[in-house]
Write a structure and sequence with these properties.
The chain is of the alpha+beta class. Strands 8-5-7-6-9 form a 5-stranded antiparallel sheet, with helices on both faces. Strands 4-3-10 form a 3-stranded antiparallel sheet. A hairpin with a 4-residue loop joins β3 and β4. The longest helix has 24 residues. It starts with 11 loop residues before the first strand and ends with a helix.
Length: 421
Amino acid sequence: MYTCNNDTNNNVTSHKVTSHKFTKHVNSEGSLGILTKYASTPDIKGLAELAVRRTAKYSLQEEAKKLLPTERVRFCLRHRVDATKGIEVKYNQKREQAHYSNVQRCGSVWTCPICSAQISEGRRQELKQGMEYWQGTGKAQESGGMVYLLTLTNPHHHGDNLVQLLEGQKKALKYLWSDRKSKEMLKALDKVGHITATEVTHGANGWHPHYHILLFFKNPINTKSLRNFLATCWQNCCKKSGLKVPDHVHGCDLREGKYADKYVSKWGLADEVTKGHIKKGKEDSVTPWDLLKQSEAGCEKSGYLFQVFAQAFKGKRQLNWSNGLKKLLKVDEVTDDELATETDKDSLQVDILDMELWRLILIYKCRAEYLTAKEHDIKFGSKRADNLIMRLAESYTKDYVHEMMANADLHHVRSQALAMT
C-alpha cells in the first residue's frame, strides 16, 4: 500500500516488502541499507526510552487537540503542507530518530508537547551558547563575564485572574527596568543585558506566575546588596502596577553564577516533554503539562485550567532577550517555526505514506507507534511498520464497515485485509 513512484527527479524507486503487495519508497542509493549499517550497534534500552517519551508527547498532543479545538495544535503533525504529496517519513542519522515531514507544525511552545520540546531545546542551546561566550567557557572567546539568576514574584491567591496577574507583572517589570534608581544602579555595576523567562504553576493559592531572569555583568557583584536593593525596587513597581505587594524576603531572589548555570541546564533537559513551563511543580503546585496529564486521566478541572493557561499565554514569547544582547553574545536570530522543523536537516527519506494509510494511522492514534516501528526496522531489519499497517487495515475492516462501503479510497484496503483472514 506504499505507492510506487518511478520519478527519477526524486531519486526514488520502489520494491515489494510483503506478500500482500504493499510497496514502499527507498532512496535509489539504498537509504535503508545505509542506515541499517550506520546503526550496527543499536541501543535497545535507548529505543525503549525514546518510544515511551514519544508516546507520551503524542498522547498529550491528542488531549491538547481535544481541549483546544480552534487552535493550530489541532492540525499539528496531521495535515499536509503540500497536498499533492504524501506524508514523508525521514530518518535523522545524527539523532537516530525517525520523524514525519510534509506535515504542518503548529510551532506552539505553550500548548503542543511535541513542538514545545523541540523549540525549547533550541532555546536552551541559545542560552548555553550565550552564557559560555560571556563567561569564557567552552569555545568562547570572551572571558571574565558574570551571569546571575534573578527571580521575581508577588503574592497570589485562589481566584486571581491569570491574565490580570501576567499583565500586572509585565507592567511591574517594565517599571523596574525604566526606573531611574534601578537603571543607575545596574549601569554602575556594568550590567550589559538580561534574558527573561516567564513561568507559571498552579496550586492551593491559585496561579503562580513568576520571572526567572539571567543578568549579565562585566564583573562580579555583591549579590546580597543588589538583592536587597532590587527587592525594594520590585515592591514599589508591584504597588505602582496594582499588584499585591510582596514582602522584602519572598518577592525577590538573586543567586550567583552556579545557580544560573544549573537553571539553564535543568531548563533544557533533552528528555523532558518540554522545558521551563513543564518542570515538575514543587510541593502542592503543578505545571501546565501536569494539568494536561491530569486532564488526559479524566480530571475536568485540570482540563479547564489548561484552557485558561493556553488562552493567557497565547502569543507570548518563551524567552525575551534585552536589546542587542544576542548580537553581543554571538547568538543568531532563529524563529520558533525554524526550530520546530530542525529535524529535517541531515535526514534521509525512508518512506512516503499514501493518505489512506495516514488516515488509518490517525484514526487509531498510532503516529508515535509507527515511528517507533520504523526505527526498529532500520536498526534491526524487521518489518514492524508494515505489520502495523496491516493490523490497522484489518481492524478498520471490522470497526468501520459502513464507512468503508462509502469510501472508495479504502476499498482496496478492505479487499486486501479480508484476503488475509
